[in-house]
Each structure stands twice: as structure tokens, then as C-alpha cells.
Amino acid sequence: MKIVVALKRVIDPYVKVRVKTDNTGIETQNVKMSMNPFDEIALEEALRCREKNIASEVVVVTVGTDASQETLRHALAMGADRAILVHTEKSFCSLNIAKILQKIVMDEQPQLVLMGKQSIDGDNNQTPQMLAALLGWPQATYASALSFSNSLEVTREIDGGLETIRVVLPAVVSVDLRLNEPRYASLPNIMKAKQKPLNRLELASLGITLKDHINILAVKPPVTRKGGVILDSVNALIDKLKNEAKVL
């Protein structure tokens, strides 16, 4: 079984995000970038499937600039067999990313596509569902456990507890944080990753017609919270609630 894992390069989750002075987007110059944490969990699960002889090959793919090769090399160092970079200088919405991934999946013909449930920059939680719809494949979302028998059983967290569903392959599965704990790339594997194949494809070569579905007018930071007020009595608190907060 071949598994394709979709990855995204995002600002490191431990870095404070800054908005550009012209409000056109998020500042990424000289900012530490890393693999989207949800995608890293999806990759870890694919590698565990290969180690259990469930999968024979793990292919990682991302859409972005040449700087995204760093993310792909990290994935190769973790253990992925090969990588695909769809090169473009433009940022795309979830639907267009899903269309690009659809083309890659049709060319690669995997039995399973693993993805993070969302990226930590956009938090859209749309691309896995859109990809499954475009492919016409079954899908499972928010996976917290995977089990393979004659088919794929996916345990997912819902409001009422846990739900286990059976999915017929090929399928698209998006994963949640509780699925596993990603491994660290060892130094020998980092060196080996330099020799693993990384295929760079120009977006134009895929023959996909894409159009803009979303136009971002402006990006603004949240309003700075005002400092709190220390009150000297309960009566003062009640007075503020009545006359200022207007909650009573």
C-alpha cells in the first residue's frame, strides 16, 4: 500500500506572529518556519504503518516556494521515502490546494491519503474534505486512532465521546493531535535524507486551471486587551457590573 501525506510549511508554533505594516498579510521574512504540527502527526502515522508492513511506500507532497524543500527534507529525515514539491510563488485557498493535490494523487495512485485536520496558520479545516470530494473517495476526519484489517477502522473524537467508523480504501483521512507523538529525526537519517529523491514540479506543468475564490482585503492584529482593574470591595465589583459591564 502506498500512502501520500500532504504537508504545509507554516510559521513555527512557538514564534509570535506579526502582521505586516501594510496589513497585506503575516510577516514571514527572517521568521522561523516549520512543518505544520497536524501534518507531522499524519506523517508519523504513515511511517508507523510502513514499519508494521501495512504500507510499502510513504510519499510526502507540498505546494509552495523553493523554501518548502526544507520542510520536505525534514519529512525525508523522519523516514519518508520520497518527496514532491509543487513549486509556485503564489498562495492559494483551500479549494485550489485540494485541486492541486487531486492531480498529484491521481498520478501517484495511493491507497491512502493522510493529512492534518487543519493548518495552524489558516485554521480552515477544509482541504481534506474538499480533496475527498474531488476524488470521489470516502473520508474520515479528526482521526485519533487507526486500525487496519480487511478495511480501515478510524476512531474519531466527537462531542459525545468516541466514534469508530469503517472506511473502504482508497480514502482520505485527516488526523487529530491525539493520534500519536511524532519522532525526532536522527542525525544519520538527516544525512540519508539528502540522497532521497525530491521531485520539483512546476505548477504550470500540471495542466490545472485555477481561479481565485477568495480575496483577502486586509489582515489586522487582534485588538490589544486593556489592563484589569483591582477593586477594593465586593460592593465596588457589583457597582461596576451594574453600571459599566451591563450584565446584570
**Using only CA atoms, what is the Rg?**
22 Å
- How many DSSP H or I helices? 6
**Largest sheet, spatial ordering of strands:** 9-8-7-10-6-1-4-5-11
- As for the number of domains, it is 1
Low-pLDDT regions = none
Which structural class best describes the helix and strand composition? alpha/beta
Q: What overall form do the CA principal axes indicate?
A: globular
What's the N-to-C terminus distance? 62 Å
Q: Biggest sheet: strands, sense, closure?
A: 9 strands, mixed
Tell me the fraction of residues in β-strands, as a range. 25-35%
What's the rounded overall pLDDT mean? 91
Q: What do we call the CATH topology?
A: Rossmann fold
- The helical percent reads 25-40%
Order of helices and strands: EEEHEHEHEHEEEEHEH
Q: Tell me how many strands there are.
A: 11
By CATH's scheme, which homologous superfamily applies? HUPs
Assign the CATH architecture: 3-Layer(aba) Sandwich
What is the CATH class designation?
Alpha Beta
What characteristics describe this protein?
11 strands; 248 residues; nine-stranded mixed β-sheet; 6 helices; single chain; Rossmann fold; globular; alpha/beta; two-stranded antiparallel sheet
Report a brief summary of the structure.
By secondary structure, the protein is of the alpha/beta class.
